[in-house]
């Protein structure tokens, strides 16, 4: 039998590797930016078109490459950072496997320009699908420029799996922010379709965080600083009152490399214990420095997950450092044994005895005398002494009780009431004639329609066949969902104008989402007066939303749309209606009056589909009398 196992050609192997390394344009951005950082660049420019589908270009002023290195860098497993296996445990750079450039070149049109500082001329290479088209000598500035065009041009199936430009741009934005936050000493510039998105000069950590997120971020940050033998923790956490429902602004950097760690995130949440509302997520930007030989960063293809030697110690140190910072800046309650000096008794009072005050009473005073000119004052004199706080004599404090003149006889207050006629009232009342009922009493079944609330969660209402038990939160979600969807469909939503417009601040990627949703939100009743790069101004809100709920509604909407905005307008309206219904619906644990219970039950059964909530959960169940009888028959 002939052999059937054979070695794959290089271009096929590169395409297979690209499936692991390059998942979307953001993956290309990450690899090229990290290469520029490893090259020692102090100025990096990122240019993308169509969210990276048409072009991803990274230009740096790093050390560049020689002619030989420029050609060799596109080979698989070609790297300048690894010489032996032991080097894997002492890495201080980003890329090291040597698969990134080879994988990218296998699925795109790639153009590279590079020149070293000591060389007069540079190298210009063009590659299309792993095939070298040309390599020429050119006059170039110092550094390297990579241009990746037409990503997945030779793999149409992979290109079809890409999301919309909005979603892909958000992923590119995330990768850019992670690299820029990790290296505040580098000047970054970011362009998308010719528009400048970021221009971040070299600065400190705080300035870089504020520059990327928004101007209002500065007042939210609480510094964290802890230095131990096994780890150095620096960075910032946000105050609990600025916590969000989404987990977007949460960054861990280990040795200047962005990572994701559920274990360390749990340590942060433990430090905020008792300070956050249910479901709220704090923002944090934490930079951890550990010895390279105590971590393993080669356990995940994208290098976003690493393994620590002593996770328990890191957990305890990180939790204690954050808790200490929150307490130090009076964000969290702490035990304070410092006494207020104003509440302390002075030391020279300790030997002073309390003196009994003397009272002088006039025994001849008669309160029932008719003499209107008779006025009497009783003088109350407190004891004197250096410790009493008051002095006797002419400066003594005297309290006087002045005799109140008796008023006229009480009977005079009611003179004339018995003769006062009801006709003197300015109001006239019309007698209502009581008519007989349209139906005979024996034809009408008197049924009490009272409702009852159980554990502030369920509403029980009697029906003809038994009773219905309604989940108040899900029922209200269904009611609000259909109301919002109807308003957005017919464009007849009512809006209430605000006396003072609301200024709400958001990060740049959140502002991008809001701009996409602006038209749909206006159909629900929102009125946008202005929209800047970092904040929006709202002058009108829907009638069923209070001013304090506006930020909650928009924040919940941004959280629900983290995975992208639906392409069709109907899907957008459906998503917005669901998100707003979730935010505004009455929550479990809320007390409802009997009238509110009746309105909720009546509103639910007036819906087109009262059986399920917008999230496909049952809104009510029914129990027949027969079912109850069976329970008692056991």
Automatic annotation (TrEMBL):
Pfam families the record matches: DNA_mis_repair, HATPase_c_3, MutL_C
Domain DNA mismatch repair protein S5: residue ranges: 209-327
Stretches the record annotates as Disordered: 370-397
Stored NCBIfam families: mutl
Family: Belongs to the DNA mismatch repair MutL/HexB family.
Protein's job: This protein is involved in the repair of mismatches in DNA. It is required for dam-dependent methyl-directed DNA mismatch repair. May act as a 'molecular matchmaker', a protein that promotes the formation of a stable complex between two or more DNA-binding proteins in an ATP-dependent manner without itself being part of a final effector complex.
Protein name, as recorded: DNA mismatch repair protein MutL
Organism: Flavobacterium cheongpyeongense
Gene that this polypeptide is encoded by: mutL
């Amino acid at each position: 039998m002939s052999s059937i196992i054979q070695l794959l050609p290089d271009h096929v192997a590169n395409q297979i590797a690209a499936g692991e390394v390059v998942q979307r344009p953001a993956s290309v951005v990450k690899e090229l930016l990290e290469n520029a950082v490893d090259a020692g660049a102090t100025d990096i420019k990122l240019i993308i078109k169509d969210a990276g589908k048409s072009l991803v270009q990274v230009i740096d002023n790093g050390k560049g490459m020689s002619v030989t290195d420029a050609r060799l860098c596109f080979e698989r497993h070609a790297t300048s950072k690894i010489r032996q296996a032991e080097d894997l445990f002492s890495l201080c750079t980003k890329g090291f496997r040597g698969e990134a450039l080879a994988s990218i070149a296998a699925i795109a049109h790639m153009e590279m320009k590079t020149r070293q500082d000591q060389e007069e001329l540079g190298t210009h290479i063009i590659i299309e699908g792993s095939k070298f088209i040309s390599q020429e000598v050119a006059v170039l500035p110092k550094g390297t420029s990579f241009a990746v065009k037409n990503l997945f041009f030779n793999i149409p199936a992979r290109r079809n799996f890409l999301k919309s430009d909005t979603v892909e741009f958000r992923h590119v934005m995330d990768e850019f922010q992670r690299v820029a936050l990790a290296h505040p000493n580098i000047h970054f510039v970011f362009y998308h379709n010719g528009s400048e998105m970021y221009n971040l000069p070299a600065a400190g950590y705080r300035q870089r965080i504020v520059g990327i997120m928004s101007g209002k971020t500065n007042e939210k940050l609480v510094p964290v600083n802890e230095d131990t033998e096994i780890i150095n923790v620096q960075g910032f956490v946000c105050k609990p009152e600025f916590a969000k429902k989404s987990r977007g602004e949460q960054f861990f950097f280990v040795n200047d490399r962005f990572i994701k760690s559920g274990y360390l995130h749990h340590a942060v949440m433990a430090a905020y214990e008792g300070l956050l509302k249910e479901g709220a997520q704090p923002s944090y930007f934490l930079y951890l420095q550990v010895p390279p030989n105590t971590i393993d960063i080669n356990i995940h293809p994208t290098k976003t997950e690493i393994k620590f030697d002593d996770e328990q110690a890191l957990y305890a140190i990180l939790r204690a450092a954050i808790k200490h910072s929150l307490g130090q800046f009076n964000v969290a309650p702490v035990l304070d044994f410092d006494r207020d000096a104003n509440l302390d008794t002075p030391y020279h009072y300790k030997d002073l005895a309390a003196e009994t005050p003397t009272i002088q009473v006039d025994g001849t005073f008669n309160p029932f005398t008719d003499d209107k000119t008779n006025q009497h004052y009783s003088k109350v004199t407190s004891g004197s002494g250096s410790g009493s706080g008051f002095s006797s004599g002419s400066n003594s404090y005297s309290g006087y009780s002045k005799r109140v003149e008796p008023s006229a006889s009480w009977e005079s207050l009611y003179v004339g009431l018995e003769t006062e006629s009801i006709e003197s009232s300015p109001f006239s009342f019309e007698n209502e004639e009581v008519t007989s009922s349209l139906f005979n009493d024996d034809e009408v079944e008197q049924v009490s329609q009272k409702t009852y609330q159980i554990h502030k969660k369920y509403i029980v209402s009697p029906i003809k066949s038994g009773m219905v038990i309604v989940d108040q939160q899900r029922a209200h979600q269904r009611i609000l969902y259909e109301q919002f969807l109807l308003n957005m469909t017919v464009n007849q939503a009512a809006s209430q104008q605000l006396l003072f417009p609301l200024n709400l601040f958001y990060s740049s990627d959140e502002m991008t989402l809001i701009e996409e949703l602006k038209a749909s939100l206006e159909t629900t009743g929102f009125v946008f007066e202005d929209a800047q790069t970092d904040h929006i101004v709202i002058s009108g809100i829907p009638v069923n939303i209070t001013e304090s709920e506006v930020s909650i509604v928009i924040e919940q909407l941004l959280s629900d749309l983290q995975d992208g905005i639906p392409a069709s307008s109907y899907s957008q309206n459906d998503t917005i209606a669901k998100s707003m219904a979730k935010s505004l619906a009455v929550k479990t644990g809320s007390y409802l009056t009997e009238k509110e219970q009746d309105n909720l039950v009546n509103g639910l059964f007036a819906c087109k589909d009262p059986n399920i909530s917008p999230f496909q959960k049952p809104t009510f169940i029914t129990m027949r009398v027969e079912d109850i009888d069976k329970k008692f028959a056991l």
